[in-house]
Amino acid sequence: MERAVKYMRPRPPPFATVGCMARPRTFDEEAILDRAMILFWRKGYEATAMSDLVAELGLGRGSIYAAFGDKHQLFVRALGRYLDRQTRLLDTALDDQGPALSRLRDVLGRLLAADAASGGAGCFSVNSIAELLPHDEEVAKLARRNLQHAEDAFTAQLERAARDGELAPAVSPRQGARLLLDLVQGLQIMRKVDPAPARSAACLDSAFALLGRPLDTASVPGDVPFTASAVP
Q: How confident is the model over 98-120, as pLDDT tens digits?
């Protein structure tokens, strides 16, 4: 009686599975995000078509979808990258060197000057808020996180100003920070209407004049004292 021979399925050669493996990416993801950020910044979210992204990034639609998802997901990543960069720059600039108020005034002035140098594109964050809020919750979360961080950084600087006797006694550091934050956001929008840097500089100077501690007394010819608040 012949013994039954068990049939053994032959194993596929090692190279048979190569076709199922994902192809390695041959592009710099961070560089692509930067290019997408600049395109969205220049054109806005709605006006940027997928064909624009394909042309600007030099990638096919399939590669973009595989690496970043759809247009909205790519936009959110690009905006998040921009905001993270802004946060790091702010944290680096607001140090403990020099008088707190003048340091903060200088940082805000440079922030507005950088937006002015963007060729009329304005601030990417402010543009995105104006275009997509309140309907886009993902963008709203990014914006709230970024604005809260800026408010906290301004508050810390104004608290230092208060400790050093620079801040007007009637000014709360937190409320002063919100005043400056709202002012800067408004100026970034107004720059689209009136790009003259003198307007922004004058508004900042006025705001910091209100925040600073006024002179308690002054002298006039004849040594007649008067309070600074009495000046018309």
A: 899 999 999 999 888 877 666 66
Quick check: 151 and 177 in contact, CB under 8 A? yes
Three-state DSSP class for residue 167: strand
User: Average pLDDT of the chain?
Assistant: 83
Q: What is the C-alpha separation between 199 and 65, in angstroms, rounded?
A: 43
Other beta carbons within 10 Å of 9: 5
- Residue-range domain boundaries for the chain: 26-80, 94-211
CA terminus-to-terminus distance, the chain: 123
The length of the chain in residues reads 232
> Does the structure show a pLDDT above 50 at 49?
yes
One-letter amino acid of 99: P
The torsion defined by the Cα of 112, 116, 120 and 122, in degrees rounded to 10, comes to: -20
Q: Kindly give, in sequence order, each residue whose CB lies less than 8 Å from that of residue 43, ignoring residues fewer than 6 positions away.
A: 52
d(CA 186, CA 114): 15
Which CATH architecture does the domain made up of 94-211 adopt? Orthogonal Bundle (1.10)
Answer yes or no: CATH 3.30.360.10 is held by domain 26-80: no
Helices and strands of the chain, counted as H and E runs: 9, 0
Please give the backbone phi and psi of residue 47, each rounded to the nearest 5 degrees, phi first: -80, -10
Confirm whether 26-80 and 94-211 share one CATH topology: no
Contact between 169 and 213 (Cβ < 8 Å): yes
DSSP string, 68-122: H-SHHHHHHHHHHHHHHHHHHHHHHHS-SSS-HHHHHHHHHHHHHHHHHTTTT--
- Residue 156 in this model has a pLDDT that exceeds 80: yes
